[in-house]
Amino acid sequence: MLLKTVNIKRILVLLAILIALGLLYHTNVIVKNLELRERQIANLYAKSIEYIATSPGTSEFTFIFDQIILAIDFPVIVTDADRNPLFYRNIEIDTSLSQKEKDLILRKEIKRMEKTFEPIKITYGDTLVLNYIFYGNSKLIEQLKILPYIILIAAGIFILIGYLSFSYIKKTEQSNIWVGLAREAAHQLGTPVSSLYGWLEILRTKIDNEEDVTDVIHEIENDLIKLNRVIQRFSKIGSKPEYVEEKIADVINSVVRYFEKRIPQSGKKITISVRGDVEAKAFINRELFEWVVENLLKNSLDAIENSEGKIEFKIQERKKDIIIDVSDTGRGINMKYRKDIFRPGYTTKKRGWGLGLSLSKRIIETYHGGKLFLKESKIGKGSTFRIVLKKKR
Fold first, then answer.
1. Apex 301 CA angle, 296 and 304, nearest 5
2. What string of DSSP letters covers 191-252?
3. Beta strands 269-276; 308-317: pairing state
4. Strand runs (DSSP E) across the chain, as ranges?
5. Model pTM greater than 0.85?
6. Is CB count within 10 Å lower at the N or C end of the chain?
7. 85-89 β-sheet, strand order
């Protein structure tokens, strides 16, 4: 379980890193493409100025300025052959500054631009340099360059939050398991211990009747056997159980008989029946399966709040599996909680359902390869839990 948890954490971290690297690479490709496009525009701008400088006519100048120069959205500075600023575009400079102050700002921009991109020369013929065009990245590209770092920070925050959340959930779940295990142990031991106290009181009142005393001693013996079974059940958690082909009805009836003699002590009149395909057999671990039946039976008994009620075990044999429906006439469960009731530590009452249903589900699904779920429930009408067992393993 610990190894599985570590693997999940590693997968989450690796996934976050891969996503961040993928976005980083994709953003870098976009930036490179935009830089290439802006360089092509800058070259076109240089060719346009060169054309203006060497062409005698002026008919195309308006088109060049309107369609090319005005379309530029990145910072551009045009200088003379000695790199003195002549004019600029898309650079924010306070208009109230003197020309000397503006030139100083533009020269600083020229040095910064030159470190990023090589200036484009405007020549006359092959050797005479007329002007230089210095240019930088547009605001969009500058923002895109920052984006990868934002992505990495976001990925880091995602990993941190995910790790902390996962650790918190794991810690809470472990805490719930321990709390639930303590409750379940108390729940398991509560029935036989309470029963022993009851038999002791009966024994005191019937000390002179040898036949009644013998019956009471027999039931005390059953409770001691029950306590020993509880110990064995908890000792089997985590170990590999043995499976034997058993009649499901016989296993259920053995649990029912134990409870039937103890129900009157609760002051309730509850009828428990087992019907259907009573000859159906399946390979089970008897002690663990009895634990499941007992947990479901206890839940049904607790759910019946009236002085009278019914609990029914209905067995159906199919070709490859056996279905056991456990129905009661209790208070019912809201179906929106049908998955929550199997979570470790989940409870809606002071006793029970802390771990009983979670353990039962694990016993049926993990150890027996079957299914356990809440089939149906209506508030005030009752609930039906369904167990699906495979005939063969």
1. 125
2. HHHHHHHHHHHHHHHTTT-HHHHHHHHHHHHHHHHHHHHHHHHHHHTTS----EEEEHHHHH
3. parallel
4. 76-80, 85-89, 120-124, 128-135, 244-247, 269-276, 281-284, 308-317, 321-328, 371-378, 382-390
5. no
6. N
7. 85-89, 76-80, 128-135, 120-124
